[in-house]
Structure formats: C-alpha cells, structure tokens
Specification:
The complex is a heterodimer. Chain A is of the alpha/beta class. Chain A is built from 22 helices and 12 strands. In chain A, β5 and β6 form a beta hairpin. The chains are: A alpha/beta, B alpha/beta.
Chain lengths: 474, 247
C-alpha cells in the first residue's frame, strides 16, 4: 500500500513552517483579506437561513448513516453506474489511482487532459504521475490554473490561490501566457484566463474531475463549482474520468437537497452554487461517450475503522473551518504541509497517512472551537484533535521533557498536600528566573512563552495557604 | 447557601487573589463558602495535550472530593468546559459505571462563576463599585462550550461607576490554548498581537475575562509591550467596592 496525501510526508513540522510563513507579510495580508470576505458572506447567508441548525443535523445524520453502510452503498453505486453505461474502478491507494488514469489515457492514445478542480487528484499527486508518463494535465479552475502556472502549492481547499493577490496574479499571467499587455482589473484577468482556457476546452478530448457527491441509487456523480469551467470539462470532451473518494456517497438524489444548501453557503457564502453538474453514466449524443469513475480509498477505510474519529469522513470540503480558524488566519494553508490545510487538514492528513509523518498537526490548534461551530456537518474537530494528540503521545511522539513534566504534574496534582509541596518548590525554583519581580525568560521548551510574554511569578502565598490561615483565625 | 469553591490548580497557585475575590463576593451576598483542601485539578492540561490516563485520575479525584457538595463554584470557564465536555465520555471510556453516575449526578451542580451568580443566585448587581473603563474578552470555552452569552457583561453593567466598552472581534481566540502557547509560540504570539490591537483600540484601562489562563497570556503580552492596560479576572472587579484602586 502506498497511501500518501500530496507531499505531506516530507513536509516540515507545523511550528517551523508556520514561523517562516509568519514572516511573509504580503501573504498574511492576502489570507486575512480573503478569509474575512468569505467569512462575512457566509455569516450573512447562514443568518438568513432559519433552519440552519436542522440542516446541519440532517447533513450529519445522512453522512453518519452512509458511513455505517458504506459497503452496501458503494456496491449499489457501482451497479447503477455500470447499468447507465459507466465504468467503475476501485483504487486502494494513490499509486493505484494514478495507474488507472494513466492506463485509460494511454489506451485512448491521449497526451493531454483538462481538469476540473479536484482535491483527490492533488491528494494522489496525479499531475506529477501524468507528467512522468508523458501526459500533460491542464488545470482549468481559475485558481488551480494560477497554482499550476506558478508551480505553486494550493493553500486552501476551496480557494487554492487565496494567498495570491491580483497584482501577483497579473504578473504571473503576463509571464506565463506570454502576453504583451494585460489590464489590472479582475475582469481583465478573468478574460485572459478565458482566452487561454477556451482553446483547451475545445481541443482536448479527455476530461477529468473529482466528485462532490456520488449518488448510490442512480450511479450519478455531482460536481459543484462557481466558474463554469468545470461544466466545460465534464460535458465537452469525448471521454470523462472522475476520481471520487469512497466517502462521497449519498444514498439518494433527494439527499442533495440538504447538502447543496449546506455546501454553497459554507464554502463561498452563496445561497446556491452557480454550477451544479450532475451526470449519470453516458447518454448517446449528449456529453462524453465514455465515462470512468475511480472510487478511491487511500487511507479512508483506516479512518473508518476508528469510531472516535470516523466523523472526519463526513467532511464535504467546504473550507468554512479554514476561513474561521484563527490559526489558519495567521499562517495560511502552506504551514500545514498538506493539500488539506486548516482544522480539517489537521485531523484528516494524520489519519489518512501514517501518523508519524504529521505528529505536529494535531497540535496546530488552540482548541478554540470555532471550526466545530461553523462545520456544516457538525464534525467535532477539537474533540478529534485531542483524540489524535493522545495517539501521538501513545506512539512515543511527544518530547521527553514534556512526558516527564506531565508525569511530574500528575503526581503533584494527585492530592492537596502534594500540590502544596509543589507550590513551595516552584516558589523556590523561580528565584533563579526572576528579574524586577517578573519572569522575562524561561528555560528549555518553555522559552517560547517568554519570547513574547512576561510571566508573573508564583505569589508568596497560595490560595489554599491563605484559606488555612483564615480558618485558623476565625 | 453553602457554596463549595473549586479554585482550580492554577488559580490556587498563580492567582490566589481571584479566589479571595470570589470568596468576598459570595460572602457579601450572604452565602457561606467552603474550601476542601484535598482538591487539586480538573485534568484539562493533561487531557488536551494527549494524556487521557493522567487526566482520568484527576477527574476521579475531583469527583471523590466534590461528590457530596451541593453547589460547586469554579472561577474558570475552561475548567468547567473540561468537565462538561469530557468527563462523562472519559468515565465511559474507563468503563467505570460509578464514575459515569457520579458525573451525571454532580455536573449539573457545577457552575462557572458568572453562571453561578446569574443562574443559581439570581444576582446581577453584586454591590461592586469600580470606577474604570473595562472591556471583556469572552474566552473561547465560556463562549462556545459553556455558552455563557452576555452573563459576564450583565454583571459588569451592574457595577457602579464602571464604563463598559465592547471589544472589537471579541470572539476571536487570544492564542493561549494551553500547551498550544508553548508548542506553537510564534502562531500564539501572532494571535495575541491581534487581540492586543483590539484591546488597545477600546482605550480600556482594564481587560477582564472569566478565565485567568487567557488573562495570563494577554496580561503577559501587554506587560512585555509596556501597554498600561491591566488584566483582571471578573471576580476581582465584582469584589471591588471602590476603596481599593486598580494598580
């Protein structure tokens, strides 16, 4: 098995990556501006939906039901899709998924494909595999195209180029599209992208997509997007290949009623997504003549096997948790070292791939709970982060000083008398650290605290000592 | 009413003045406060950092000490959140039916300080006087887990001569997050910088909260930067009668 999530296994630990990014003021301004715009739009359209909490609960229950019966629904999907003229493939891991795509393209004699924005393809690193096989992938989602042209990495689930501003994008287009002139407005940039992409839409005969939802009863696949470029990719080419995570199943068409209300509002603050494409197998004379869907595991069944954290698979990739997260807001997505950034990335990445590659991610959160509050399917992200932290510690991933400190603290806190002794010891020890009545500098792993914050010393008398004295006096 | 004070380990050790203030307010309102010296800690630090076994031992100790208390007052939002959000599940995971029962039976009698005053004691005016401009940082756990809502603000508005000013972007985390502040000091500091900017904008003389852990972080940052805003627990404001002045 070769489960991998983008290049997350080689990524530096979160605190180090975050430290670097915090120094990039332009990036931080871009991230702050963009997340604020989406946050405000989301808050407005959620606020005007009176049954929002009921919708969240419905979304969560449908997903939980699906995960409990995933085997049955997947087979039902396979039967229905095959009946409608589609070809269903099963991929255990990233390598297998890439091989299936490459085999299909080679069999057709293809050398190029056009792509809708697809998280799963970033997860399996499809583009790199295609290029190695001599096939050119063209990203057609505007933001993904910006990422591809700039050899950059996505920093957000929904808005992958969120860390770039207009000026930076204009510079990139001028260079990569070899333009002699280009206006400065968003409309100018969109028009340039349109000319660049239109030629590919009309020429390239193989399209590629992911899937936001796969409907078990009908074997249909649904892709939700804002630009219409995805619609081009799934309708114009002669052949269409879709790579869909196995957790994307919903039982029936009617279930989309819930998810399409939740997703648009949560992702982009729109009451409805501008383009909702749903297709079922092939229809002669209408759209692709050949349709393949690849159902991807790549670690998902491992997540499913942990009852404490399997709700991670409920995620509909709206990105609301990224936009609201005070940590993401400071660092942007690259700090997470994974194509899945932010709070959901901090729980999804370590679970999909081997934990040892991402032991810092479960700690990349202050546990403020804002992610849980906005999640459209009520994933209790803070709770899962804590669960994963326990796994890190259990696997011996915590620093030795921390483990010793926690053991010592547990002993000191085991009864009132021991605590009182520890308080006296702390007062003695801090004499070495005090300066003008305040602690400016702590040693070892605690030094991070005093890098930016003073620490009031342990006072001369604890509360329990004061209380004991008071009792005696009365 | 007899109110049992669970001071919490870090208030006991680092912020005894908060405990004294809680005692002063409750006694002024005519109640009797008791303190059980065997008490220690709710286990939050261990639990949130990935040490659930150590946390479970502390939970058991807490349940043993406070099981027969009628009303427990806790001047820390995050410790109450720890108990409500995690104790029942921890007890279940240990397979300890007695602990599960103890949790279900006693957690409804545990109150965060502002909850106790408003919900249990029905008090908004605690008889305090505090002639300063004050802003409130609604800590994440009190806001999202306990959902204390405007209880702390109502209590502040009941204080004589106190000018209350709203904090911009108040529901944004201050960046403390327990061991997060140690493990991710740079991000924590960046979050704190935003919080301090908001606090300075209010031109308040005092920033208050229902949790000293966030205040230790915020106050430590303000002190380092030489910003003359004092960080004070809500109980200390409510204990003031105007005779003593803020530092």
């Amino acid at each position: 098995m070769s489960v991998h999530v983008g290049a997350a296994a080689e990524a530096p630990a979160f605190p180090a990556a975050a430290k670097d990014l915090l120094g990039n003021q332009q990036l931080r301004r871009n991230v702050r501006y963009a997340t604020e715009v989406i946050r405000n739009k989301r808050a407005k359209v959620v606020g005007e939906t009176p049954d929002w909490q009921e919708l969240r609960e419905a979304g969560r229950r449908i997903k939980d039901h699906v995960l409990r019966h995933l085997d049955e629904y997947l087979e039902q999907f396979e039967r229905a899709c095959t009946r409608a003229g589609g070809h269903v493939h099963w991929a255990r891991d990233a390598d297998e998924a890439n091989r299936i795509v490459i085999d299909i393209v080679k069999r057709l004699g293809g050398t190029e494909i056009i792509k809708v924005k697809t998280m799963t393809s970033d997860e399996v690193r499809l583009n790199a595999a295609l290029e190695a096989a001599g096939i050119a992938p063209y990203e057609t989602d505007l933001a993904d195209m910006i990422i591809q042209l700039g050899h950059d990495k996505p920093s957000h689930i929904v808005v992958p180029a969120l860390h770039k501003n207009k000026t930076e994008i204009r510079r990139l287009f001028l260079e990569k599209m070899k333009l002699s002139e280009l206006g400065e407005t968003a409309e100018d940039l969109a028009a340039a992208a349109r000319r660049y992409l239109r030629e590919k839409f009309l020429r390239v005969p193989i399209g590629f997509s992911g899937g936001n939802f796969a409907i078990a009863e009908s074997g249909s696949v649904c892709v939700v997007e804002s630009e219409g470029n995805g619609r081009m990719c799934v309708t114009l080419p002669r052949v269409l290949i879709s790579l869909v995570g196995i957790e994307k199943i919903v039982p029936s068409f009617q279930d989309l009623e819930v998810f399409l209300q939740l997703l648009g509002r949560s992702a982009t603050g729109e009451r409805m997504n501008p383009y909702n494409s749903i297709w079922t197998g092939v229809t002669p004379g209408d759209g692709p003549e050949e349709f393949h869907v690849i159902l991807l595991d790549n670690g998902r069944t491992t997540v499913l096997s942990d009852s404490e954290s399997r709700e991670t698979l409920d995620c509909i990739r709206c990105g609301a948790c990224l936009n609201i997260c005070p940590v993401y807001r400071q660092t942007g997505g690259h700090a997470y070292g994974s194509i899945y950034a932010g709070p959901i990335g901090a729980i999804l990445t370590p679970q999909l791939q081997s934990m040892e590659h991402s032991q810092s991610l479960p700690y990349a959160s202050s546990l403020c709970g804002a992610c849980y509050e906005v999640c459209p399917v009520k994933i209790n992200i803070p709770e899962i982060l804590i669960h994963l932290r326990a796994k890190v510690v259990e696997a011996g991933g915590a620093p030795l000083m921390e483990r010793l400190g926690m053991k010592a603290a547990a002993l000191a806190l085991s009864d009132g008398e021991r605590l009182e002794t520890a308080q006296s010891l702390a007062r003695l020890a801090q004499k070495l650290l005090m300066n003008d009545g305040v602690i400016h500098k702590l040693p070892g792993m605690l030094a991070g605290w005093t890098a930016s914050r003073d620490l009031e010393p342990v006072p001369k008398e604890s509360f329990r000592e004061w209380w004991a004295k008071r009792e005696k006096q009365s | 009413m007899i109110i049992s004070l669970f001071i919490t380990c870090y208030n006991d050790t680092l912020f005894p003045q908060t405990g004294k203030a809680v005692v002063a307010v409750l006694e002024r309102l005519g109640h009797r406060v008791e303190f059980r010296p065997a008490q220690t800690c709710c286990g939050q630090m261990h639990y949130n950092t990935g040490y659930p076994h150590e946390a479970a031992a502390l939970m058991n100790h807490f349940l043993k000490v406070f099981r027969d208390a009628d009303t427990v007052c806790v001047p820390s939002g995050s410790c109450v959140a720890m108990m409500r959000d995690h104790f029942p599940k921890m007890a279940e995971e240990m397979g300890d039916a007695g602990a599960v029962r103890a949790c279900l039976e006693m957690l409804p009698r545990v109150y965060e300080f502002s909850e106790l005053l408003i919900d249990k004691l029905g008090v908004v005016d605690t008889g305090a006087r505090f002639p300063y401009t004050v802003t409130l940082h609604p800590t994440c756990h009190s806001l999202r887990s306990l959902q204390v809502g405007d209880r702390p603000v109502r209590l502040l508005r009941g204080v004589r001569d106190l000018t209350f000013v709203d904090l911009p972007d108040s529901d944004e985390c201050c960046g403390f997050g327990g061991t997060f502040a140690i493990k991710n000091p740079d991000v924590s500091t960046a979050m704190l910088a935003d919080k301090m900017t908001s606090i300075r904008e209010t031109q308040a003389e005092v920033v208050t909260a229902v949790d000293n852990s966030c205040l230790m972080h915020i106050g430590g940052g303000l002190n380092r930067q030489g910003v003359p805003v004092r960080a004070m627990h809500l109980a200390e404001i409510l204990a003031s009668t105007g005779a003593e002045a803020a530092r």
